[in-house]
Write a structure and sequence with these properties.
Blueprint lengths: L13 H20 L3 H6 E8 L5 E3 H8 L6 E15 L2 E14 L2 E16 L2 E11 L2
Parallel strand pairs: 1-6
Antiparallel strand pairs: 1-2, 3-4, 4-5, 5-6
C-alpha cells in the first residue's frame, strides 16, 4: 500500500498578499522611525530571527535594541523584489533589503536577501521568523 503525501502549493490570495506587503513596508517605516510599536504588535512572542551576521535575535532582543537608539538606528532602508506566497494561515515573504544602519554600535551598509514567515493568529498576522543573508 502506498501513502501519498499531500501536495502543498502556494494559494492565490490577493487580500493576504496585500496585507503582508503592507506589513513588510510598514516594518521598514518602523525601522526608519525607531518605533517600538510595530515589533511589539506584529512580532510573535516566540519570534526568532537570524540576522545577516549569523546572530540569533528574539523579540526581546529587538525591543532592547530599539531602546538604545544611539547604537541601533537606520539611516536608510529600502526593500525591493518583494514576493509573498500564501499557504493557508501561513505566508512567506521574500525580498531584497538594502540599508545603512547602526547595529549594536557597528555601522552596517549592505544588501541582504530576506525571508520572513508570517502566521495568522486569530484575525492578526504575526511574524514568527526572519532570516537574512548578505548578497554577493
Amino acid at each position: 500500500m502506498f501513502l501519498t503525501a499531500p501536495i502543498v502549493q502556494a494559494q492565490s490570495s490577493g487580500d493576504t498578499v496585500a496585507a503582508i506587503t503592507k506589513l513588510e513596508n510598514d516594518g521598514v517605516k518602523s525601522d526608519l522611525a525607531g518605533d517600538r510599536a510595530w515589533p511589539e504588535k506584529y512580532l510573535a512572542d516566540d519570534f526568532l530571527a537570524c540576522d545577516s551576521d549569523g546572530k540569533w535575535l528574539t523579540k526581546a532582543d529587538i525591543l532592547k535594541m530599539l531602546a538604545d537608539p544611539k547604537n541601533n538606528n537606520f539611516k536608510s532602508e529600502k526593500i525591493s523584489d518583494l514576493k509573498v506566497r500564501v499557504y493557508g494561515n501561513t505566508a512567506i515573504a521574500t525580498y531584497k533589503d538594502t540599508y545603512d544602519a547602526q547595529v549594536e554600535g557597528q555601522h552596517r551598509m549592505r544588501s541582504i536577501l530576506a525571508t520572513d514567515v508570517w502566521v495568522k493568529v486569530g484575525s492578526d498576522w504575526k511574524e514568527v521568523s526572519s532570516q537574512g543573508t548578505t548578497t554577493k
